[in-house]
Specification:
Layout lengths: L1 H20 L4 E16 L3 H18 L5 H23 L2 E9 L4 E6 L9 E7 L3 E4 L3 H4 L6 H23 L3 H15 L2
Antiparallel strand pairs: 1-2, 1-4, 2-3, 4-5
Helix pairs in contact: 1-2, 1-3, 2-3, 5-6
């Protein structure tokens, strides 16, 4: 019975992880001016989920050859420890940029990196993950006069970035992670 619970928990965690890995789709590109820059604590829920799954697996593995109740306790203990470690590792501060969009309204974009300042004209890429790039002031001041070909190029770049992020999330081994991370850095950074 306990083994079935451990397997079901592991399976549910894996489904959540896979579902998130395949959902990195771009939905919109918008232009605007940064009106404020701040900091906030990172959302560490992803680290907690991953830590729970890995910790549960380690606990289950160390219970190999032990009684069913021992395996269950080790799995639960490993999951709890993994959740705590994963949450701590994913924690920290990130920058939050408030952008006044030229189409009206505002959006807040939270990023781990970036060297943006108040007054910068930026392209905000919105989807299951967000990205932001500095662009010419012409996109904020005279947007209606900017040729569509330039805006289409920005959408193409944004889609390439979203695809690179999806590849990173789907990477299966350390080599694939390093390659995907390099590709994402090249395609997504300002």
């Amino acid at each position: 019975m306990s083994r079935n619970i451990a397997i079901a928990t592991l399976f549910c965690g894996l489904l959540l992880f896979i579902g998130n890995a395949h959902s990195a789709q771009l939905s919109a590109v918008a232009y605007g001016t940064i009106s404020s820059v701040g900091k906030q604590s990172k959302d560490n829920s992803g680290g907690k989920t991953g830590g729970t799954v890995v910790g549960g697996l380690v606990g289950l593995y160390t219970g190999k050859g032990k009684s069913t109740s021992n395996k269950a306790l080790r799995t639960l203990g490993g999951a709890a420890a993994g959740r705590a470690v994963g949450g701590h590792m994913a924690g920290g501060k990130q920058k939050v940029y408030t952008v006044n969009l030229i189409q009206g309204g505002t959006i807040r974009v939270a990023m781990d990196s970036g060297n943006f300042r108040e007054g910068d004209c930026v392209q905000v890429e919105q989807g299951s993950t967000n990205n932001m790039r500095r662009v010419s002031d012409e996109f904020c001041v005279h947007n209606s006069q900017v040729p569509d070909a330039y805006k289409a190029e920005h959408r193409k770049e944004a889609n390439e970035c979203a695809q690179a992020k999806q590849e990173l999330l789907a990477a299966k081994d350390e080599s694939a992670v390093k390659t995907a991370q390099m590709k994402m850095n090249i395609l997504c950074q300002d």
